[in-house]
């Protein structure tokens, strides 16, 4: 039930919303560490590059204990600046040994793709501290799905309707994330090379 916060992208402008998110996750039974990351600010970022790198590199190096859950604070911009400074091999190995689940979306896609591309460790396109748990009104679906995902050994996602009338069974690695971030990583060593995968994309006004 250990949950470690990392802030790789934009600043969390409202400290009250940060506290709401921390309180909700604590009430759900999580022991949270690295709270300070959610309160940092350097220009438009949630801390300097060095501070944001350290959030993940400290786990990779063993300086801090590997948690059961790694959760981003929010999206925005800035995660791609950090990628070359993180030991993804070590981070992935420690996460695999602990069975760590990483959650994020939007700009955190850069972290998630680098982790998959460099170490083969998957992650979840899922809720974040500020963007989701810090909202005034929390989605019951979000909390329920998050708890089920972090406490179950398997996961089934039910989709009530499809865009296609006839759906054939398919298998493959489900991967993807934010469209703009994926496009920016094309040609870099942090872009996973997936053969026969199932791609999902999220973005707005692109």
Q: What does this molecule look like?
A:
It contains 7 helices and 7 strands. The protein is α/β, with parallel strands linked by helices and 206 residues long. Strands 2-1-3-4-5 form a 5-stranded parallel β-sheet, sandwiched between helices. 39% of the residues are buried.
At a glance:
The chain is of the alpha/beta class and 206 residues long.
Features:
206 residues, alpha/beta, two-stranded parallel sheet, 7 helices, globular
Outline the fold blueprint.
Elements: E1 2-6, H1 15-27, E2 31-33, H2 49-60, E3 69-72, H3 88-98, E4 101-104, H4 109-119, E5 124-125, H5 129-133, H6 140-151, E6 174-178, H7 179-185, E7 198-202
Parallel strand pairs: 1-2, 1-3, 3-4, 4-5, 6-7
Helix pairs in contact: 2-3, 3-4
First-to-last CA distance? 37 Å
Q: Spans of 5+ residues with little confidence (pLDDT < 50)? A: none
Q: What percent of the residues sit in helical stretches (DSSP H or I)?
A: 25-40%
Residue fraction in strands: 5-15%
- Counting DSSP E segments of at least 2 residues, the number of strands comes to 7
Q: Which class of secondary structure composition applies to the elements?
A: alpha/beta
């Amino acid at each position: 039930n250990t949950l470690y916060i990392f802030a790789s992208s934009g600043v969390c402008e409202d400290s009250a919303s940060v506290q709401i998110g921390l309180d909700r996750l604590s009430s759900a039974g999580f022991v949270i560490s690295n709270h300070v990351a959610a309160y940092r600010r350097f220009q438009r970022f949630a801390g300097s590059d060095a501070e944001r790198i350290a959030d993940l590199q400290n786990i990779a190096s063993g300086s801090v204990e590997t948690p059961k859950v790694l959760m981003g604070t929010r999206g925005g911009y800035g995660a791609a600046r950090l990628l070359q400074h993180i030991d993804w091999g070590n981070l992935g190995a420690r996460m695999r040994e602990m069975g760590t689940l990483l959650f994020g979306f939007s700009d955190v896609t850069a972290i998630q793709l680098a982790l998959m591309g460099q170490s083969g460790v998957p992650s979840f396109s899922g809720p974040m501290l500020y963007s989701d748990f810090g909202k005034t009104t929390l989605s019951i679906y979000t909390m329920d799905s998050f708890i089920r995902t972090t406490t179950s050994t398997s996961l089934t996602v039910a989709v009530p309707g499809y865009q296609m009338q006839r759906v054939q069974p398919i298998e493959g690695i489900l991967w993807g994330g934010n469209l703009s971030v994926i496009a920016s990583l094309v040609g870099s060593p942090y872009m996973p090379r997936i053969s026969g995968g199932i791609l999902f994309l999220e973005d707005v006004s692109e």
